[in-house]
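Schema walk-through. Below, the input block comes first and the output block second. Nothing else is stored per chain. Lengths vary across the set, and this one has 628 residues.
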Amino acid sequence: MAQASTPLNATVQQVTRRIRERSAERRALYEERMADQHRRGVHRAELSCGNLAHGFAACGAEDKDRLKLMNSANLGIISSYNDMLSAHQPLEPFPEIIKEAARAMGSTAQFAGGVPAMCDGVTQGQPGMELSLFSRDVIAMATAVGLSHNMFDAALYLGVCDKIVPGLFIGAARFGHLPAVFVPAGPMPSGLPNKEKARVRQLYAEGKVGREELLEAESQSYHSPGTCTFYGTANSNQLMMEIMGLHLPGASFVNPGTPLREALTRFAAEQAVRHTEAAGDYRPFYRQIDERAIVNAMVGLLASGGSTNHTMHLVAMAAAAGLTVTWDDFTELSAVVPSLTRIYPNGQADVNHFQAAGGMSLLIRELLGAGLIHGDIPTIFGTDLTAYTREPFLEDGELVWREGPAESLDPDVLRGVAEPFAPTGGLSVLDGNLGRGVIKVSAVAPEHRVVEAPVRIFEDQNELKAAFDAGELDRDVIVVVRFQGPKANGMPELHKLTPYLGVLQDRGYRVALVTDGRMSGASGKVPAAIHMTPEALDGGPLSRLRDGDIVRLDADAGTLEARVDAHAWADREQHVAELDHYHVGLGRELFGGFRHLAMRAEEGAGVFGGFEADDLARQAGQIHDEDA
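--- output ---
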């Protein structure tokens, strides 16, 4: 086991310092604004009698009496609960648990608002997927609406999945004068092994089993309340929240519907009360989350082979807290952060196996001991991250924390820094004459990380199935799916393509995917250059490609190049696609403004602009209001 006294890794120090220096002006402006919000009053004491009466009109007599007293705390609850989606259904009883815990401490809690929660698993390959990425920013705005009443001394954010937690984080950052506690729901118990699920999907893609067999396999895999158990964006969210100190230690992967899960939710409410100004240990979000916490999240993501979506989400989350993160920061950290986990799709285990092998306590212990994360960050549990090497247990009904294991209980799933699965992280950035993109290499075998082949171009993911069925892709091929960026159609995940590409690779062909769309945290064994920026609609080089061009993807060297004569490439006209069919139906017409405002993938693919960065540029005369 690595020693806790190890000094901070030089590269981690350098990246942290670079983010801090790069962000100095906008971070200072962010902190100034949060301090100003605090000075104006963080709770109901600033409301008029009429305002306040409206704010507690629906409460019971006991809560009304406490809300009239300005020295008690009132917690705001923001939740992504709905009962259709397995990850969010367990959140239904949480508000009542939180209210009871607050009352027991002489305080109150109110359900401030719900935020939408959509599932990429349900919308995969469907038109609704084109709303998915933008739902993050809708969630951030819904969070702001819920907290806008200024009735609250702290907030609890109940959410789990892909866009929900980043959206809640962005909202929390803009209400950074409030203490913030993030409350997870936990993963469902393990179901059908991931290897078997992937096998059935590929058999279905080849037409060797029918829809009935496929549905049965999927139902055995996604079978009960809780988060999906593979290591995609949802579970990457939980890891990042814990390693930033926004979860309680060990809270991320406790199954829903258990006494321990309920006890953790109750304690989360108690901590929120303790950290209010009224309780005397005021711990606002903006003082807790800085560049050190963001770097911790990046390192945790790399060490665990986490979701590629966070190369956008973390950029947007950091921006909301006045920090500027680039893909180069990910690349530099990836070179020194070892791969410590094998969780599907990077292996066959799921997050329950990861939890049993040592889970977050061991992962954090190893990263702290190797000097790869900042231990000196304030958390919702204490003044540093060392407490996060402990695990929660119930002793005679009381919640306690004990030291977690000192070494892995299953080295096929989780390892220490001394014997990693690979010496570097699971994400890389690609550069070349096709732009910049991201590739997740942790699940890609070394022999598949370099592919040079003719391209076959598609402008709609549904076209690929027809080409596959016709045998047109039975060769070495780099599949290009373009005009899938945020400005084009909201940047949907293209995970529907995975089984077809996997079949081609299994047949012995050299195969890769290049796209300005997304492939999600479930990116698997086929090398995929995703999030290509600038996107094709925004003048990106993908719009110059033609069928048959030779492209070389080299994940080891970090390059992506069209092997086309430089003069001919420069003279090529950009192809213009017909995209109207993406813009109507299933509510997509409501998001036209979002598509127009969307920033590039490396800037977070959000619609909010640069927060303080835009204001600083305006002050410097670099942009004008009519340009914003």
